[in-house]
Amino acid sequence: MSARILVVDDVETNVRLLEAKLTIEYYDVATCRDGATAIEIARAEQPDLILLDVMMPVMDGFETCRRLKDDPVTRHIPVVLVTALDGREDRIRGLEAGADDFLSKPLDDVILMARVRSLTRLKIMIDELREREESVRRIGIGDAGIERLRGTGGRIVIVDDHDEQAAHIVAELGKNHRPVHLGTMGNDLSSSINGVDLLIINAATKGFDGLRLLAHLRARESTRNLPILTLVDTGDRPRLLKALELGTNDIVSIPVDGHELSARAFTQVRRKRYTEFLRERLERNLEAAVTDVLTGLHNRRYMSSQLQSLVSRANLGGDQVAVLILDLDHFKIINDSFGHDAGDEVLREFAVRLATNVRALDLPCRLGGEEFVVVMPGTSLEDAQTIAERIRSNVSREPFRAKGMGEALTVTVSVGVAASVPDDTPETLLKRADQGVYEAKALGRDKVVVRAA
Fold it and tell me: Which of 116, 243, 283, 286 has the fewest CB atoms found within 10 Å of its own CB?
């Protein structure tokens, strides 16, 4: 599906002209004539890019952009201000309002399309992260909403062999960021850019090929998404277009206007922080989706999915899979006598002993309460029994200690063991192991019982 672009301009001719240019390039175009309507459409339809005229009645483009970027529902949508204004103050005002770029009329079609392609690709990437994060959150994991991100300035590396220009950039960016100047990097992708929030490359250097460096960075997986801002001489159209083609995130003209550079750098650092926030929260939520909060072991959801896969594979001629079901003996007495905090400490300690007494390939999980499961790929019934005995012995041999219990407490565990047979299902396999637990309890607890099919 093509990217969807919202064109906002109060002049009919301008709207139709932009709509025609974008439609020819196979973009899906929506239009409106004022800022308030643009905000409504952006909230409802989530376009991939907004081309926003500045000079509009009632609410101008600056204010419209500011409101879009202040709204958590729309702040991730790239906004390009399109206007006949070409003054330095207007560009900076637009960038400080949150615009991702500022293009002057009459529009250069090649540059316009290059920026549209770049920003819509970025939006699609961010949307994928947001969608995956939201999918995880919908199953009950993670905090609601995405809070507004705030933070200190970013770490910025300037690659420029023009020392005077670089010193000017460092001085300007140093007011809010942590800039570092590298005279040259050539094609050496060293540790100098590890953890960098923004890389600024002078494409007009004499000591090395800045565009070649840009190409190398975009070709490497580790730096493919690194924000890069390229300095290009005013009027050097071929180099500017090549930088956009190679994947630079933004362009600043030489001679460098420090205030404009600072505004564009802030936009890139802010966007990087946002995407990192999404990635980190996605990873955190994915981990939470498969992890028991109290013990840190895998949870029931993860156990079920893994066991289903392993049993299916065994039924197709793959390795046998075994399971242990473990139930702490008389756990209710611990909770009733010493409180739930002490009971939680016992569960956490048991989880540690369980995890350290199984093999690296085994999957220790908490089913809930005081009941645990170990899924054991490629394991026979006899080997599973041996490991179950090792766990049982470790638990009963060394007392547990927890706050509020005074003396150390002896804890025991009853274990049921089962291994897969042809045409088994996860349910039948677990049921046999669970029957082993009941039998162990009936025999006096602190026992391992093997249940064959």
Answer: 283
